[in-house]
Specification:
Elements lengths: L1 H29 L22 E7 L6 E12 L2 E2 L6 E4 L4 E8 L7 E5 L4 E6 L5 E7 L4 E7 L13 E5 L1
Parallel strand pairs: 2-5, 4-10
Antiparallel strand pairs: 1-2, 2-3, 5-8, 6-7, 6-9, 9-10
Length: 167
Amino acid sequence: MNVVNTKVLLLVPIVLAIAGISAYLVLGNSSGPVSASTTPSLQESTVTSSTTAQESRTSNTQTGQTSAVKSVTVRLTNDGFNGTAAFRLNLKQGDQVIIKFVYEDKLSDIHPLFLTGYDLQGPTLSPQQTEGTMEFTADQVGKFGLLCLNANCKTHDKLVTALVIVS
């Protein structure tokens, strides 16, 4: 019996990882961008006034291009980023991005954060480290996963489906 129980215990994290990746691929391919000006449904969360989004635009006089500094606060909760597994952050190519993460996990897990596509390691949030930032330039167009790398956290399935969308 111990061999069977051990095999089951080994398969659980693998199944959860596959489910998280599948959800990421499904959500990434089927849900279009949600702008911050639309009202999010119960299943979607975008950067809104309650999220503390600040944006300022600067112009480059040599190139004539306008870029934005986008500062966003994102809460990491038991239900996902900003309380939902369907979190979306919409950016414009060229934006200078500062994401401030605030730890609100009631289960006291450790969450090392990562942004795919940019291969950017974010802060590791925990009961001891309740805030951290991730800064980058949104220079690649596409959909990128914002996720927790701790496959053993209790809410991992809700922290692997968030998208950063750059257009």
